[in-house]
User: What shape does this take?
Amino acid sequence: MHKVLIANRGAIARRVVRACHQLGLKSVVVYSEADAGAPYLEEASEAYALLGVTPKDTYLNQAVLLAIARDSGADAIHPGYGFLAENVDFAEAVLQQGITFIGPRPTWLAQMGDKVAARALMAQHGFPVFAGSELLTDPQQAAALAADIGYPVMVKPTGGGGGMGMVVVEDESDLANAMAQASAIAGSAFADSGVYLERYLSHPRHIEFQILADGRGNALHLYERECSVQRRNQKLLEESPAPGLDADQVAAVAQQAAAVCAQLGYDNVGTLESLFTQDQKVGFLEMNTRIQVEHGVTEAVTGCDLVATQIALADGADLPSQPPLDGFAMEVRLYAEDPDTLLPSTGRLAVFRPPNMQGLRVETGYQEGQILTPYYDAMLAKLIAHGDTREKAIGRLLVGLKAFEVVGVKTNAALLMSILQHPRFLNGQVDTGLVDAIRQNQ
Amino acid sequence: MARHEVESEVTGNVWKVLMTPGAAVSEGDVIMILESMKMEIPVESPSDGTLAEVCVAEEQQVEEDQLLAVVEA
Assistant: This one.
């Protein structure tokens, strides 16, 4: 491997450029008209313009991305997260061009991308799953299954991700409507319009496990990430290790996650997401076949460069040995959004000055003067703090958020700071209901 | 008859229009879904009544405060 094309934008594009430099690889970035001012265009070895601004015309435009790979002489493509990262057709097209896809084999993207199939596969291999249905078409069949599972149930698109299109149904009278709505949204947003049912759990904890695998039957885990602090089913804050859980139980589930991935012959990196209920029951949620936004949390507590490792594994390297867990790490996602309404905020970054502090890493794909458009997600930056206690990591994030100067768009910094200082959070009592509880009390 | 204008709270684009003019609406019914920065933003009817006009089409770009729909109560 000599030259890597990065088919993405923002913080992850910049992060992969850095990993390439460290590995002595050339990096090729692409940029839409909206991203022409991004800082990583100069940091990469080469930068190619994409015509247009919409995701469809730019970072989802497979033909153009493949042509740039060919023209630039790239022998590998890193898809980042989002966009084409879990797109089976794209991964296959990359491989057919004789280019290395830095991610799991397309068969894993397909199998784990189908949420119903993924759950069945996990259950077959002995990983716990919660009650749920197969793919649904008929509302009457849905009513019978929902009654079996027990209300409230969640209607979910099978091709979905990021919480999009999910609908909670309290009783049977709302079921048909919810199915139609979820299916309509799934049909326009995802390749597959199928929906399925799952038991809706009240305020579970979202715990995920970082997996590394070599595709030759070996896999290991790099511990857990606690990702329960969410709004609208999107993560706001992640940390490792997970506070307030039975550490032995978490370690056992982590081992089981790695064992299942080894048995499957899974390759490259992945994240097994699970839910822990308030009575400590565990069930599979989904498997993400890519590097995650929050990978930096695991890097901070293990010292493992996950992106460099991912690239090395795609190039046929052996697995590293499992590092010990070192201290406490926590990440917050600074979003361009109104802290009161949570609506996204667009505009020009008149001032954008990330803090530079010990024990704090900032990952951003933006620089001062850039314009935030409505075309891409609202994440401005990730702040990742590390410390020998959880309290130290929290303190570093608070200072970092306070020092981070942003003028021109609204940000969620105040909400993040109120989460970090909330007694429930400080006590490690995190669950997916925490953000709503905090906002209602303000 | 009261006329309620429904305006966009964000800059973004129209993702899905869920209702057609003439439809009976209740307060809180979702008329359309906007998308901005990969977030779904439901646009709700401000009152009970009839959806008199839908002023935008799917995939159309919208600015903050742009008129999206009119509900007659």
